[in-house]
Amino acid sequence: MLSVNLSSPKGTVADLSRFLWGAALFALPVTSFRYFPGMGEGTLVRPLAFYPIAALMPILLIQLLRGKTTFPRAGALTPLIGFGLAVLLASSFGAWLDPLPLRGQDYFGRVVRAWATLIIGVSFFIAAVWMNRNEDDLKFSVKWILAGFIMDVAWSGVQALAFYTPILPKVTVTHWQLAFSMRELVKTNRVSGMAYEPAWLAGQIATVYLPWLFASLLAGVRLTRFKWLEIILLGFAGSLVLATYSRGGLLTAGAATALTFLLVGRGEFRNAWKWLASKSLALRFGVLILILGALVGSGLFLAQKGYIARLFESDAESVEEFVIENSAGARSAYLVSALGVYEESPVFGVGLGASGFYMYDRLPDWSLTVVPEIAKQLNPESRLYPNPKNMYARLLAETGLIGFILFIAFQFSLLGDSLIALRGASPLARYLGIAGLFSWIALAIYNITQDSFATPNLWINLGIVAGVTAFEIKSPSPPAPLPAGEGSGQEQS
Hints:
By secondary structure, the protein is mostly helical. The chain has a domain at about 10-95 and about 120-270 and about 405-475. Helices cover about 65% and strands about 0% of the residues.
């Protein structure tokens, strides 16, 4: 519970900043908030968390102008600023290319929308860096992240009751969901939580929540008073990823977990193996049966969905046939098309948000007749605007090599922060480093299937890592303690 010190202006502002930051983290599960002014129906990424962030940023800037706080000094901000300048250059060059309007949308309209999404995303990152300067800030942030996840788990449970039991009618839960989301319950009985669709929920779990829960398991750090809470939530996270039936989410969560474990969890594995070897044969056999049962049960659960089973039962004779047969034809076509747009302007790009003006002319021939989604896009009466649906292809197409290289430099700077944290002496530093590494790997995979800068997943966790690393771990001496009542992100004047 947060208390506001009304007798101290400093304390009041600091507490308000913390409250808004906690509210943003708590609201992360809602990805497509219905009430978002100035956005068309086609804009699906509408994070509710941006509302408290939009209120928080002016407060921090006013405090900065008054000398009550300092601007974040995270090293990752340098390539991020460079990327912003590259995007500005690409947008200017794209205006010179001057593409023809497409379905009522012109170049400047698309660029303004794209810049708005980038500003939203960067505001999440700056807020995360600004509000996380020490271990207390880290604990505060993770607790509110987990509180938001608990809310998401609860709502996913309500959806499951509507799908699989007669306790709650689907129509009733749909009305409840439409009160805050743009989308009703998924008709295929796939759990989507508070996200727009099941794939978004799976990606959110893999990139925001699993990193902290898995790090808690490996580092042995518990940030709540309930000793088993993180372990229980880790089990819920794995179950929800399965319940989404999202192939991309399963790949992201599974690969990030395996790679993080291989890179930093070998010591824990050896300790667990020694502990198990010291136990009775019956216990070892029971643990083995439990693990095999979980793996087999998960496989049988996923096999209920035909589009997952088709991955292992395909008789396709070519890569194109396999991709189309497994419902990935449209995404693959958009990827090929976006890479074709990159050839239009390989150095500067065609402008942020402008790749769609060029994509239709570069769709691969195999996609024009056998992929229903592409046929829908090409319908003369359609008002759809194509997107690359791949962050790396989008960066190449819209910002060219300059923007792409600077964005990758930004990402590797964040990886460096995670590795620095891993080398920290305290268990909490290792916890931070593991979560950062997990997040980085998960996002590297996640960006293969999404292309929106406004998604908070891209910025929150790594912003927290960058902030704590810059102010607590990289600092030559620990920061001076704040007076009683002072909150995160505030310094003495």
